[in-house]
Specification:
Length: about 700
Amino acid sequence: MAKQKAPALEQLPLTALKGVGERLALTLQKLGLHYVQDVLFHLPLRYLDRTRISPIGQLQLNTSVMIQGRVLSTQITYGRRRSLVVQLEDDSGVVCLRFYHFSGHQKDKLQQGVLLRCYGEPRLGRSGLEFYHPEYDYIDEANATQLEQRLTPIYGLTDGISQQRMRAIVEQAVDLIHQNPPDEYLPAEYNRRFQCESLVEALQSVHRPEKGAALNLLMEGLHPSQKRLAFEELLAHFLVRRKLHQQAAAQKAPTLKMDKALQQQFLNSLPFSLTAAQQRVAKEIQANLGSGKPMLRMVQGDVGSGKTLVAALAALCGVSSGYQVAVVAPTEILAEQHFHNFSGWLENLGLRVAWLVGKLTASKRRAALESIASGEAQVVVGTHALFQQDVSFHSLGLAVIDEQHRFGVDQRLSLRQQNSKGEIPHQLVMTATPIPRTLAMTAYAELDYSLIDELPPGRTPVNTVLVTQARREQVIERIRAACSEGKQAYWVCTLVEDSESLAAANAEETAALLRENLADLNIGLVHGRLKASEKEAVMKAFKAAELHLLVATTVIEVGVDVPNASLMIIENPERLGLAQLHQLRGRVGRGEVASHCVLLYGEKLSEQARSRLQVLRETNDGFLVAERDLQLRGPGELLGTRQTGEMQYRVADMLRDEHMLQEVNALGEQFLRHQAAVAEKLIARWVGEREQYSLV
Ligand code: ADP
Ligand code: MG
């Protein structure tokens, strides 16, 4: 009997696996998993090390561990917040587990003497090292010494599937891998380079790490197999983005020519002249706009470098040629600010500026939609409300998207509707997140790149100082003094946990304390738990100088311009990345007076953390800050802070893998030129049909 060839895993439906019925298959589809091969490329998000139990007496701060011990006591305490505190004891010591959210049932089950295995990272708490909301299992006496043999992979899930179930499915897929190995698309030298025998081996070793495999490397994403896979993934994403770029170049766009007289009139109306960098970038943009092919360009510029003005010039160019221009901001407050600026600049020239945000009343909204549809509105400023389906432009020629990392590629693309002449609007995205160039070339390979590398003259750099919490009272006095001179200040609370509700609680507490200490000041509070309208009301009051001090979590809006605010306190800055701190600091230093940023650090600041913060003292240059952050921290969150909606990587990490990018880009260009079919397959494997990447 002829041996039947096993079906290729890329065509084998998931229902071929044991325990996967139609219903589970549908659930798995939500994760983009359709075929067995997709499961193989559904890579672990991270690993848990359940191969060894750490002695409680040897716990280290912020190091993930598994401990095992008996419950010594369980009680509810009423400190600043009600919490359930469980003391766990082993031969070497005792540690507290603390829960802010818990049920009566949970408390009852955690009886004295019960044996628990508990996973988590100890942090500094009231009683010393504590575990906050750790995961835990009850252990039978019989299993007390049984441990996992390998690292436990943790997979991305969706509603309707558990971690265990997912692991069982992946296990089956891995069992099938030798029967019908996925194709190798990378030149063979790359396997050698990453010390892998094959793609199969790489996949196998990430899903099923060998016993005794280099645990730390795997945990940190630095195992050769992970690098091999990350390289391929970066390549696939690069290819997809370059393809978008090529597709765009093949399309038609309106030819937009600047009305020089109008431009001159506009420039004359400004109280300053453009910086050289603004002029250069404006020229780059105008060259695109006049080319007849859709522009896809990103403008990067540090906070305060004057991106809005560059956008206004682009808008003027669109309007000059009789087309409409959309300007999209990530929040209503920013949209309002842009609306204010644009109407101030353009209505003087006889142009009509409209605005569209979610909060408009029905009648105002209808009026705005009508003026957009009729073409009466020449420039339309708004939020993502502009992406909605009922918004139809008469003749959209250009979309400007500000602070683009708040939007997903999919949203951006939804503005690329053809007009009646079959033309695609130009697109300009502006971002203040400083990203080193190679990184930008990969992360945004579908975009051309312009850099405003100069600040307008006459800015006084923000003076940044490091102050210990021990001198908190002096800092509070400083706020009192500044506000009594009519200045305004921010107090930024950082995340304690990766939890918006804890952060909000913390900010509330801080605001309450500051209100006690600074009773004669008006103090406002914003955090992520407030309704959008509440947030906005507070921001508005602050802008109107009705509030002296604004206490905020890190949600304070990117780009908000309150020139009168000249003092910012950032509490526990060591918890944030430098790039994020720099962004925050950019909220001050916008007015005439010298501005100050106080980094109010916690008591136990490590030498390394201190030298990291020193970078902010030394420079106000966002790109330098980003580069130093990269050097100091290696893996970071520069791109990680990009919001949902943006493509997620499975194994790659743009920053950690930055050293590979140049090669990824070069190999990618080669594939596009000489191996287009393989490029397609790579894209299908890693990006699949995730539609945010499809153009129009
Ligand atoms: P960002 O790049 O952070 O978006 P903005 O566009 O908000 O910066 O500009 C910050 C401030 O600098 C604004 O008040 C703007 O009017 C001002 N500005 C922009 N360009 C210049 C310039 N060439 N000279 C002086 N001030 C400028
Ligand atoms: Mg801006």
